[in-house]
Amino acid sequence: MVVVDWLVRAMDDYNRVSLEKKESYVATLHMPGTILDELVNWCFQSLPDEILVGLEVDISTPHRDEVDELFQGADHHYGLFAGQGSIIGEAHIVNRGDSYSVHHLPEEWTDGLFTESRGARGGRFTHWLHTHPNAPAIPSGADADAAQATEGVDLILGVDFSPAGPLPWYDDVEGERRPLAKDEQKGEPEAENADANRPRWRSRLFGRRDRRQVLGKAPTGHSIHGLELIAFHRSGVGINVIFVDGEGLPYGWPFKADTT
Ligand SMILES: [Zn+2]
Questions:
Q1: Of the four, 21, 47, 108, 224, which is 20 to 30 A from 178 by CA?
Q2: For residue 132, how far is its CA from the centre of ligand 1 (angstroms)?
Q3: How far apart are the C-alpha atoms of 188 and 213, rounded to whole Å?
């Protein structure tokens, strides 16, 4: 399966930031680019709903040692979560709905057994990802609650796209932002001022939406302006995501030391 060019470039950029920020994280998670490609497509096919995706690791494909060595920070924790050290192997879309209902699985997924003790999602998968269509990848209160029953980690994929439908991009929230692909505002002065550390999403509130860069097109015809992805452990710490190819090597590998 071939990943589209713009997504490869986005993952390359994201991995460089994951490397730069490695000391801010206590663990890493390796996701194949083909899985991300699938997630982005499912996200659009399900609009305007959010989707919940169960992710299973493949214990026969551990992280490559040389990649772990490069990306692990000084404060790395072993044994923090289930599936740690194994590359994600498969993804299954298990629910769709609004930001609250998406976490509550229909009975055919929870099989009705021990639902209480396994949380609203039934505890069937190691990791869970849900989408935030036109909202940043920052956990809500409902997200933090749902994560408490997760044995692996929780991931959020935020997608900035147009036409936006009834709910335009909303970015008035606080939290660590990790753009996966962004509108770079090339040649515009505001990219270099004091706000430069803020994620550079083009907000339609500023009335420039039709000048926004288009990173790529979804199969549904939507224009994609930006993507964000975060992973977090139920204890509240962030998990550093690294996108890997079919060989288990990060997109952009090998990273040159002088790359800024
Ligand atoms: Zn959410």
A1: 47
A2: 6
A3: 13
Each residue of 162-197: pLDDT tens digit? 887 666 666 666 667 888 766 554 433 333 344 444
- pLDDT attached to residue 234: 93
The pLDDT tens digits for 150-164 are: 999 999 999 888 887
Distance (Å, whole) CA 37 – CA 135: 19
In the chain, DSSP finds a helix count (H) and a strand count (E) of 6, 9
* 1 alpha-carbon distance from chain centroid: 20
Cα 49 to ligand 1 centroid, rounded to whole Å? 11
Domain count, the chain: 1
Ligand 1 centre distance from Cα of residue 187 (Å): 33
Q: What's the CA-to-centroid distance between 20 and ligand 1, angstroms?
A: 26
258 in a domain, yes or no?
A: no
The CATH number given to whatever domain includes residue 33 is 3.40.140.10
In a domain, 260, yes or no: no
Q: What separation in Å is there between the alpha carbon of 164 and the centre of ligand 1?
A: 18
Domain hosting 15: range is 5-244
Q: What is the whole-number distance in angstroms between the Cα of residue 99 and the centre of ligand 1?
A: 6
